[in-house]
Write a structure and sequence with these properties.
Largest sheet of chain A: none
Shape of chain B: globular
Shape of chain A: globular
Helix content of chain A: over 70%
Helix content of chain B: 40-55%
Number of helices of chain B: 15
Radius of gyration of chain A: 22 Å
Oligomer: heterodimer
Structural class of chain B: alpha/beta
Largest sheet of chain B: 5 strands, parallel
Number of strands of chain B: 5
Chain lengths: 419, 339
Amino acid sequence: MVLNIFIFLAGILIYAGYGLWGLVWLLAATGISYILGRLIPRHKWLMWVGVGLQALLLVALKLQPITGTALLAPMGVSYFSLQIISYLADIYRGKILPESNPLRYGLYVTYLPHLFVGPIESYPTMQAALSRRRITWDGISLGFARVLWGLFKKLVIAARAGVIISAISAESDTLQGGYALLAMLMYSLQLYADFSGGIDAVLGVSRMLGLSLSENFDRPYFSESVQEFWKRWHITLGAWLRNYVYIPLGGNRKGNFRKGLNTVITFLVSGLWHGVHYLLWGLFNGLFVIVGKRLQTPWKWFNRLGTFLAISFLWCFFIWPDTLTALKSFASVFTVFNYPALISGVGTLGLSLADWLVMAGSSIVLWLYDWKRENVSSLLHRLSPAIRVAILCGLALLVLVLGRYGIGFQAEDFIYSRF
Amino acid sequence: MTRNIKTILSVTAVLIGFCLILSFLTILLQPKYMTDLVEGSMTSQYYAEAGGHDVIFIGDCEVYANFVPAELYRQAGITAYVRGNSQQLIWQSYYLLKETFRYETPKAVVFNVNAMRYSEPVSEAYNRLMIDKMRWSTEKVEIIRASMTEEENFLSYVFPILRYHSRFDQLTAEDFVYLFQEKQNTFQGHLVNTEVKPVEKLPAKRPLKDYAFADICWEYLDKIRLLCEENGTELILVKAPSVYPYWYDEYQTQIEDYAEKHNISFYNLLEVAEDIGIDYQQDTYDGGLHLNLSGAKKLSVYFADLLAENHKLEDHRGETSKFEKLLEEYDKATNIGGE
């Protein structure tokens, strides 16, 4: 109880540092949805008021580039809005009872770590995490290890890949063809290391506090189809979209045409959640999911490579700020044959040879870890405290020395904290 | 119980090992300032020679390039040290002087007023050159707090690895040779430069919008004055004979008024450059910004006479072996003994 109060108040205080307007929005959204949640069992129509209000505000924020409005989006609005919607909808459906304890509900919405990059929790999961919370040595040491692992991914890998992508995207008129392909492949690495690194940090901090939150990634680049990829990437957003968009639309119960249409609509919503600029990205993903299964071959690694390339190509909408440039850059991969020049040109993209080597080595470590994750996890559990501390220290030293942070480096936020 | 003790001991051993490795990496990755950017070693070189100085110079590059303590000693037996740094700002001069009083109480402090024109931290690089190797004290904490630019943070001064971690791929032989040792790069704070680059074309002397020195500069000049008074030390203001950046008449008037008001000596050595014998075709190494060894020697001889005559500083020649030895080392290094 005391720790819950502390986590809640500390979160609110830190959040206030991001702007009072955001804090007012967050607290108002929390307060109003708490009251609506209590009233919904007796006045079902209030669900539509609560969900409508949240959805309307979120859509208004996402459409700002088109509407030209200048609403200041509070930090984490994309995450807490979805959580509030799922909470109200679940009460309406009778899946859960309204929470009577305002602190517990307040923590569900305002729990600071997940406002940065997720995960997007359902209320039952958070409730279970809060009621089972226990601070243990295992939780502290393994949680801290996970935080360090997340920082390693973010500062050692993602930050270096980001340098290359910035260099290429800044010269989108001239750096086409091979450079565009390199940018898309590098973005696959950067986004994964950045986003999953952020999630590692959130889950690690939560674990140290005794909270077990949902995993958001399950080795996504080992997927054999785009459909599988979306079950392994940003899992909690995928689950939310399935439960609150795809299934209410009819899911796969109304024939193949409706199933395909529902899939596309769901991915369009996913695109809009990222921002209006990503609608086309959502559409392509939806189409890839529909046709992807049919293109699968009997060769596992071939499928994985194909899926990885398809996903990498689609990241072009994230790399280049406007859709036309993104499409032009994507097309140049097949029309501009400057691949031999790329070999000598990579040295001019802002990374030293040492940086390339560090990034390559660290990416291999990341890949091996993902491949053998269960083994590593069970090994860590079996290790003596001294060896565990030694591993933590080693990881901390790696991050301290090899990380790109501080003066002289662009200290960028986690990519997914922008959405 | 035994198992618990064993666990605690082994975890403690690991943590100690971590601290040792971290300390080693911190030292390894920090710039050594021994053969490259030697200006970064100037603050710390004082500690090895602290004590016994009658005169302490404080200020920016105009003091460490233009004044030669060894020449003051040769000429008038004045024992002096130059605590100068590149772009030393006036609050840095104040805290550095405050630190100096921990080690010794000089009879006179000479402050070069060129720093009065700068009221904001200039760059992180200058801060690092001055602060990195300073010993930890309340003065160092105050210097850091007063000097940090917006992009800096205090923690990176406490844990320099946070600042220098990215040097892992730029390490040179210097980083290993001077891992646990230092060499003296200066002669009592004077950085010798024998190159010659005559004054040719200086930028146009543009009028300024505002010539008034900033409040913060006056505030720290007052602090320096009061600090000297508290310690019974005479404060002497000088303007070194660097022809650029321009020392405007309006600057001169403000300092003259201040000096008169507080009964402080102020010497604008730029005005007497001809009397000193400075030849700006021969005596500067960068077109007039700083004097080279030849010019600095002329200036130091002149200033030694001025200090001895006007400020009655004692002649220490032959008294202690320390300053004789320092003069000998200086002569040897600058090849005067061989002439």
